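task queued by scheduler; priority normal; single chain, no ligands, no partner chains; default sampling; output format set to structure tokens
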Amino acid sequence: MKRLFCLFTILIMGLTSSSLHAQWVQQINPLGSGDSAMIGKVQFVSPTEGWISGSRGDFLHTTNAGANWLVITPFPDDTIWSPSDAALSMSWVNQTHGWKINSIGPTFGTSYGVVIHQTSDGGNTWQKKVLSTTEGDFAVQIQFVDVNNGWLLIFNFSTQSAKFLRTTDGGNNWNPFTGAGIFFFVDANNGWSFYGSGTNGSEPPYKILRTTDGGTGWIEQFSDNITGGYNAMYFSDLNNGWIVGDSGKVLHTTNGGTNWNYVTNTGINPNDRSKTVFFLDANTGWISTKNEVGDGIIQHTTDAGANWTAQGTPLVNPLGGNAIFSIYFVDAQNGWLTADYGKICRYTGTTGVEDINNSPNDFSLMQNYPNPFNPSTSISFIIPSKSFVSLKVFDLLGRELATLLANDLPAGRYTQQWNAEALPSGVYMYRLQAGSFNETKKLILLR
């Protein structure tokens, strides 16, 4: 499978006035790609430090906004796993305190209990707590809202029964509570949950419930008989919440769930599936969707869903699935996502804008700079009209190594960076395709 590399800033030179442009670009997963590199939830604890849950009981950790991700395996001798989809197995409340729930066993569908790995010093040291050694018990979800209060969900495939546990002392002790499906808490008392009928909650009616006492009691808020189950929930505060799911389904509340309304203007097609949603506040949020051909797309709003803008991602023309599992933003201009087969992408705004009085007249691909380089270089090009642009890197045998860009772009001058940190010294080629224009140049990696 092709190897994809860390991509950084794209510089847009406007046409007759300044304009801002931002995009999703792919970052390096040190686990590689494919089934063995599957990852789930992404969460940042500062503007530059973040964590991603791995499917083998490990983590990816960055302290430079994802320019480099390192593999952290708290207990290498454990044979454990956790699902990437749904991305619910990890929770951080600050830079020091984090938890991950895992199933004991070698692979999905083979589980002999549940274990938690937790840290209180930012991952320098880890503690392990075995919660279950019951065959069939499967670790589904864990969430903390502060250093003391957390909830988790265990499901047994054999008995088709769920077990809900709560802690008020940071995970030292866990006690049963009456749960109802996938949950989301905003503080120690207030939370919501959803579930569906039938096997694995796949059939209507789909229910939404609310608790105000930390999960001791639940009140049904909403019952939904429309086709399409729920997949993810997010509340930015006590009043404003969102639920997304199958068949283009999106629901929104502005009063803590007293009323839930269907949102039909997102641009998500009825056949598309959304698996995650994230909101910075009541107005600014992102919803993932995968369309019928497998492209991963983000729908973005800055006005509480009154209007939406589609953001393209590098997750296009897949050989496999491109479902997006998790989204996290530290502010409106800096975010990350995780997707099928170990993919990580980052969203950033423009770092520079320059006016150009006249549109460029011709396509042009410039020589990379610096050249030779180690390990990063910049590739600039000009397109005279709106075009679908593909910028790729190959070895001398013609094997594709990296897709740096695959988007529709307006006319302008662009600069894209390529990081070849994982490659040996040598001569490589980069190719720009835009409309009928096609040009290839050589570049030299010299260590």
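post-processing summary
- The domain at 31-348 is CATH 2.130.10.10 (Methylamine Dehydrogenase; Chain H).
- The longest strand covers residues 400-409.
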